[in-house]
Design brief:
Bound molecules: flavin-adenine dinucleotide
CATH architecture of one domain: 3-Layer(bba) Sandwich
Number of helices: 17
Oligomer: single chain
CATH superfamily of one domain: FAD/NAD(P)-binding domain
GO molecular function, one term: oxidoreductase activity
Distance between the termini: 28 Å
CATH class of one domain: Alpha Beta
Pfam family, one: Amino_oxidase
Cofactor: FAD
CATH topology of one domain: FAD/NAD(P)-binding domain
InterPro entries: Amino_oxidase (IPR002937), FAD/NAD-bd_sf (IPR036188), Flavin_amine_oxidase (IPR001613), Flavin_MAO (IPR050703)
Radius of gyration: 22 Å
Keywords: Oxidoreductase
Strand order of the largest sheet: 1-13-12-11-15
Mean pLDDT: 96
């Protein structure tokens, strides 16, 4: 990871997140020379493990993979990163629709009808999503109809009771990190289809997306990947301008570094890709697309205690609530360490509202939420940390790009289609587990193989 003033390569790659580094590795394996230009002083992008105390690390970014994340399992295996299962014993704690705090069994008994309604709607979503072609969602037979309404409007029209509707909102915001009123219904169906079925998206057990964690932290993946291609990564090099022609690209970074290549792969979220200056300018449709793909809003807040006291009380560390700032939580203890670590999610409007508060106020509000669910012991953590992603210059929100109504059908074809020598990667362009690490790997491989194919 040296700091040259100019560099020549076959393929210039913008961004050393998972997608960019996988693209670089794929290009290298094909016998071509990549150079990865990374704006930040580290690799990994939306993956960020932070050591907070001896023996305790927290995932401010990506944390889990699920059973169908085959590329990620393969990658972890290749890199020698071991995995362990998410803790999932005990009951979830609920507080919804004015119910007060209820243990899972109580909640399921009292709200059996509402849960059946929810199940009915999830099955319907699975049926409809099956009609969405993930390579081209705008070609779904009912794309025009589905893309002009929000997911929230569709939910509102399902005749749901308030508790079922609230649960649906919480589950969906937990994935898309924006209120459902901002999400195209077609985009919701696309998201479901890229992941399989709603059960895989929402569940933490039985094949869900959040079943498995990485020993040593998720950052072990980008760290070890970077070690394999270290001579091809340049840090602290924000790409500002991409000059492109049929002959190739000249990429200019802040600080003066210039990289020349035959192709470029832009492996950053569409909204950040739209902030790069292209010379000559890109088509109107591509620019209008990037004007319309804002990243979601999510924060993770971690409390570290001397022990996971909630486990002894029969809780799994998960809460689902429409009362406090956090709508959901997880037990994120590290196996082999005695500390109790609990993670609270702030997503969508919750992240927007509480993310703007001073950290002490945010921490106090979240502490009160934990105390309501898990009792007085929750009031005295040893440590607190949270991570706000919209403040980070090289991410500007998460988990991924949101497609509001009328974007897929009007501009969708410009999302991943190469423009001359410019190719697009990042999880936001994936067709399998888009928004997840799995999608980042898929998109990086897809873009790199397309580049390799296009070069003599
Ligand atoms: C809080 C949070 C929780 C998440 N939880 C999960 C999870 O549990 N499971 C899961 O699978 N996924 C999760 N994700 C999503 C996952 O992190 C992403 O899907 C994945 O890491 C995206 O990788 P990427 O390479 O596509 O993009 P990024 O990680 O965003 O990488 C882009 C890189 O480009 C750099 N960059 C940006 N602009 C420029 C520029 N102009 N010039 C040069 N470099 C630039 C950035 O610094 C960054 O390193 C989570 C994400 C967040 C933020």
């Amino acid at each position: 990871m040296s700091q040259p003033r100019s560099v020549d390569a076959d393929v210039v790659i913008v961004g050393a997140g998972l997608s960019g580094m996988i693209a670089a590795r794929t290009v290298l394996a094909a016998g071509l020379v990549p150079v990865v230009l990374e704006a930040d002083d580290r690799v990994g992008g939306r993956i960020l493990t932070e050591d907070v105390m001896p023996g305790v690390s927290v995932e401010l970014g990506a944390q889990w993979i699920g059973d169908t994340h085959a590329r990620m399992f393969r990658l972890a295996d290749e890199l020698g990163v071991e995995t362990f299962p998410q803790y999932d014993e005990g009951e979830t704690s609920y507080d919804l629709g004015g119910s007060g705090v209820l243990r899972e069994n109580e909640f399921h008994t009292r709200f059996a009808d509402e849960l059946a309604e929810l199940e009915r709607v999830l099955r319907r979503l699975d049926e409809l999503a099956a009609d969405v072609p993930v390579e081209a969602p705008w070609l779904a037979p009912r794309a025009d109809e589905w893309d002009v309404i929000s997911a929230g409007t569709w939910y509102d029209n399902q005749g749901l009771s308030p508790v079922a509707r609230t649960l649906l909102e919480i589950c969906t915001v937990g994935i898309l990190a924006v209120p459902t009123v901002e999400v195209s219904f077609l985009h919701l169906l696309f998201t479901i289809q890229t992941c399989g079925v709603t059960a895989e998206l929402f569940a933490e057990s039985e094949g869900g997306a959040q079943t498995t964690r990485f020993v040593g932290g998720t950052s072990e993946i980008p760290r070890r990947l970077a070690a394999l291609i270290t001579d091809h990564i340049v840090l602290d090099s924000p790409v500002q301008t991409i000059e492109h022609s049929t002959d190739g690209v000249v990429v200019h970074c802040r600080g003066g570094l210039v990289a020349r290549g035959r192709r470029v792969i832009v492996a950053i979220s569409p909204t950040l890709a739209g902030r790069i200056l292209y010379d000559p300018p890109l088509s109107g449709i591509r620019d209008q697309l990037t004007q319309r793909l804002p990243n979601g809003s999510a924060m993770k807040a971690f409390f570290v205690y001397d022990e996971p006291f909630w486990r002894a009380d029969g809780f799994n560390g998960q809460l689902i609530s429409d009362v406090g700032p956090a709508r959901m939580s997880n037990d994120t203890c590290i196996p082999g360490d005695d500390h109790g670590v609990i993670l609270l999610f702030l997503e969508g409007d919750q992240a927007r509202t509480f993310g703007r508060l001073p950290v002490d106020e945010r921490r106090a509000a979240l502490t009160a939420e934990l105390v309501r669910h898990y009792g007085a012991k929750a009031a005295t953590p040893e440590f607190y940390v949270d991570g706000e992603w919209s403040d980070r210059q090289w991410t500007r929100g998460c988990y991924n790009a949101n497609h509001g109504p009328h974007v897929w059908t009007t501009y969708g074809e410009a999302l991943a289609a190469p423009i001359g020598v410019i190719h697009w990667a990042s999880t936001d362009t994936a067709t399998h587990w888009s928004a997840y690490m799995e999608g980042a790997v898929e998109a990086g491989e897809r873009a790199a193989l397309a580049v390799v194919d296009s070069l003599p």
